[in-house]
Structures are given as structure tokens and as C-alpha cells.
């Protein structure tokens, strides 16, 4: 089996279109994420927002955290 580091090096040399196709292939091999949230969880989070126990963030802050890998 090819080593991950070797694979990374090889893929990084591909043109962008080929890297994108390869990335799509890899993502297609993964199981779909489980984004299910119960009604109870939705209600709990809504109640926290309404009570002021937690505060929301702007869309800009959300994207910044996603791009920066911050949880």
C-alpha cells in the first residue's frame, strides 16, 4: 500500500482540476455525516438563546471559525 506522505506528494503535483477530482473521489468514499438533531436538542438550544444563557455569533464569525478550525 502506498504511504500517505507519498500520496500527498504525488497528489500535490497534479493540476488543480485533477486534485479537485481526486478530492471528490476521496470524499465520496466516506460515509455521510450524521447531522441529525433531536427536537429536544433544538428546543433546548432555542431556550438557551431566548433566555440569554448563550449568545449567538455572526455569520462572519462562524465562517472565520470554520476556516480557522476553531471549535
Describe the model.
The chain has 71 residues and is an all-alpha fold. The chain has one domain (4-32, 42-68). Helix content is 63%, strand content 0%. It is built from four helices and no strands. The protein has helices at 4-12, 16-28, 39-51, 59-68. The model has no long low-confidence stretch (mean pLDDT 92).
Largest sheet: none
Assign a percent range to the helix content.
55-70%
Radius of gyration: 19 Å
Number of strands: 0
Beta-strand share of residues: under 5%
| Low-pLDDT segments, ≥5 res | none
Structural class assignment: mainly alpha
* Total separate domains: 1
Please provide the ordered H/E string of secondary-structure elements: HHHH
Overall pLDDT, averaged? 92
Approximate shape: elongated
Please work out how many helical segments DSSP would assign.
Answer: 4
The CA-CA distance between the termini, in Å, is: 34 Å
